[in-house]
User: Fold this.
Amino acid sequence: MNDKDGFVMYRAYYDAVRLIPSPADRLRMYEAICAYGLDGEQTELEYPLNAIFSQMRTTCDYATRRYEQAQHGGAKGARSRARSGKVGGRPKAEIDRQKVEEAYSRLGNWNAVAKELQISDKTIRKYRQEWSQNGTEKTEKTTQSIYR
Assistant:
């Protein structure tokens, strides 16, 4: 019915089923959980198994609803995440080597340069390495596209 490849098996399910004294009843409960979680099939169980299963079914239904909403972009969080993925992530920023070098000559500290130019320390280190590998001569204007 659901055609899902998997479902969430919470630790609480395992802990509850472990307390069932009869191995045959434990097996029936595990089979009922799997049938419901994977195919939406409800197995007839007698008391107390049906009482335990009804609690599990509630959380399984909630997880299934969230899964389906995420698949169809219906959940608010899922919609937002899907939209962000289509946009391609954070926009690229421009870094100007000359501005970086001028800021360093004024401030004398790479962390202060990063803070002033609103660039991460990691990005500053990355481009300092790249620039030193490409030669130390200053250029009129070197603009690199980076992720902030």
Remarks:
- The helical segments are 11-18, 23-39, 49-72, 76-87, 97-107, 110-117, 121-133.
- The longest helix spans residues 49-72.
- Residues 137-148 have pLDDT under 50 and may be disordered.
